[in-house]
Amino acid sequence: MLTAGIDIGAKTIEIVILDDGKIAFQNLTVAGYDVRESLKKAWEDIEAQSGIKLDGIKKIVATGAGRKDTIYASDTITEVSAAAKGALALNRDIRTVVDVGAEEGRAIKVDSAGKVMDFAINEKCAAGAGAFTEAMARALEVPLEELGPLSLQSTQAVPMNAQCAVFAESELVTLVHNKTPKPDMARAIHDAIADRIVSMVRRVGLEEKVMLIGGVARNIGFVTSLKRDLETEVIVPEDCEYVGAYGAALAAAGK
Amino acid sequence: MAKYPTEPLKLWNKAKEIRETFYRNYAEAHDKGGIRWAGGAWTFDAVPAGLGEDVYSLTSEPYGASLAFNRKLSLECLEATENAGWSRDLCSYMRNYWGSIIINKYAFGGPFPKPDFIWQDHICCSHAKWYQVVSELEGGIPMWCVDVAAGGCEPFMGLSPARIDYVAGQLLDGIDWLEKTTSRRFNDELYIEACWNDFRSTHKWAEICLLNQAVPAPLDEKSMYSLYVLATLQKSWKVIADFYEELYKEVEDRVKRGIAAVGNEKYRVISDTQPPWGFLKVFRYLEKFGCVSIGSLYTFGLEGMWNYTEEGQMIPRAMPDHKPKDREEATRMLVDWHLHKPEYQHFYSPKFKSDFMTAIANDWKLDGIMLHYNRGCEGLSLGIAENRLALQKAGYPVMTFEGNMGDEREFDEARTMQRIDAFMETLGAEQLEE
Fold first, then answer.
1. Model confidence over B326-336: pLDDT tens digits?
2. B125 in contact with chain A, both atoms CB, cutoff 8 A
3. Same domain flag for A177 and A60
4. Structural domain total, chain A
5. Which of A206, B55, B297, B426 has its CA 20 to 30 A from that of B21?
6. How far is residue A170 from each of residues A17, A136, A188, measured CA to CA in Å?
7. Are residues A24 and A77 in the same domain?
8. Which residue of B has its CA nearest to A80?
9. Cα(B60)–Cα(B64) distance, rounded to whole angstroms?
């Protein structure tokens, strides 16, 4: 039986298709302005690449910011539940899930049965989400995919005092004028996001093991800063940006 | 099909009429040869009632809430206040109120009616400055302000005779001031009657809230806002005391017949602090999940008078066993009564409020709590993060949402609904069919 989960985020759409509960196919598309068009194209790509037809899927559950705006899903679950489901399915020892996407960061505490015990969401501040790294990469004139590796070359911690992503950009200009090495500035950027995320994690209560998911988990600089701030190991699954969609697909499969 | 029968409140329209009359009376006070005053809703309104039966009031917080409910007018008021130089992080009721004066628009039509005197109490830093600014904006209005920081009540702290004397002394001095300011003779009989009505209103409101322990709850919090507000307008007015007695009978009858506020009630929650007045639809949204907010410490205890027992229960405070015999006794009884208000206690320690909230969670059979991190009121938000921890420690799921009771620009409706969706999932609630 085929089921699917769609995670409609601010920047990207992930689709995970399960066949009797096992991952059969995954697809990532840029969300773009017209999400409906993007979804339509995504399904066409899936069929072209895997042969799986949309009408062959028994149930589809949507999650993400745009979950209520899709005609393809018969049901929805929130990102919190989807992330918890997906993370625990990947590793039953996970008790804290950190989900950092383009526009939101979430800290989720789960129990051994997978029940969400508490959650915290950073939704008003770009300085705690992927949008911050994008803005800072532009300010540093470094391609986004190089920002993380660059930060690993840092030789000293430079504090970023600004609480706000907009002011942080101004602060970055000051650091540039002070001839601060680029790797150190790159590390400062990741430390700043990590600080905000860790604050949320401590709010719900840190309990090992910790899994980091979402698109920002691909950023090795952020992962390093997060581990340092949490003072614990952080598990990053291979397909970290698909975990929400995977959780939604599991919900569709009744798991 | 709904799980429980529902029916509208019979007294709903009467509640609305009383409120409209209150605001109309204030505006038309001079036309009737009367006088009018303004001050906070906690401000011992029984005292000015001793000046005559033609004395009308405008209490600040419910007026601020009325403005906030009208989002278009509220934005005009808020922007006028900010353009005049006041900071956006001040109390949002206060900013709405000042703006109403600055643009000279009364929320109930016509120009803003200037009070003859101000009768205020210093319940928080905002209230201390609120009417100083009002007086300045209106070209100077006589003002009396009572400091009420006398400590919490039993069993948390002790209201000693000296503490009661501290506040009562200011009220008694205030009576002399009122006579001089208004050139009216203070009538002790009217005052004693007003005190007694104050006790009646606030005792009876607590008894009504107690009825919400029933399953299904006969009242939901959104409806309760339109009912508790009457006590914030003028709890010493006989009309309101009588209304609450009538309301109690109707709600008691609803409990006997199993009439629910929300027909598909499956999950019960409380909220905390003032709600975002421009977005009360949040409470209707809960109903899509079979979830009802059955009240809050704010709705129960802003006006209702309660005792907190050593067994950890919240029970309505018993009426005094006799009417006061003279001015001094009336004043001491009034102060003793009011300093027991639950919403005073957390100013002394967040633990006191946590105890009240946990008692509500236990006895009103809650499934969860929704805390409004209300940026518009530092006073009632004081210690709310501690309350969250205490409630979680007591085993209750808690969600928080950010907002502002009186500034719609600080409430993100879409994101808040998403948080509610996530919280409902953690409770195991699903959206019911339409």
1. 999 999 999 99
2. no
3. no
4. 2
5. B297
6. 44, 10, 14
7. yes
8. B422
9. 6
